[in-house]
Specification:
single chain, 108 residues, alpha+beta, 3-stranded antiparallel beta sheet, 2 helices
Length: 108
């Protein structure tokens, strides 16, 4: 799935709950494992991708307002342990289009 940079919220924090992700910010790539917590500097462009063979749930905390962006761009799931939705290429492209369309409003 394509990644989208999110740079609007001050001081986003990621805590990796399972598996491992690769996090890139300010051009630096770091691998993070279960239990790791990463603080991203305010407004630093960043993105992440799952490098595991399984789902990699993470707690992703932003300042108030970011939840609205994610609800408009993302897809609700049935619960915190539900698998991510299976999206085709057209559906993935639509999510990226939505994120780009909302970028100015949410300072992303």
């Amino acid at each position: 799935m394509p990644t989208v940079d999110f740079t609007g919220s001050p001081f986003p924090i990621f805590t990796i709950l399972e598996a491992e992700i690769e996090l890139t910010f300010r051009g630096e790539v770091k691998r993070t494992a279960k239990g790791s917590t990463v603080n991203i500097p305010a407004t630093a462009p960043h993105f992440f991708r799952n490098t595991s063979e399984t789902a990699a749930p993470a707690l992703h905390v932003h300042a108030g307002g970011a939840e609205e962006f994610f609800m408009l761009v993302g897809d609700p799931v049935d619960g915190r342990t539900a698998p991510p939705p299976a999206l085709g290429k057209d559906e993935q492209a639509e999510r990226v289009r939505r994120a780009k369309a909302l970028a100015a409003k949410y300072r992303t």
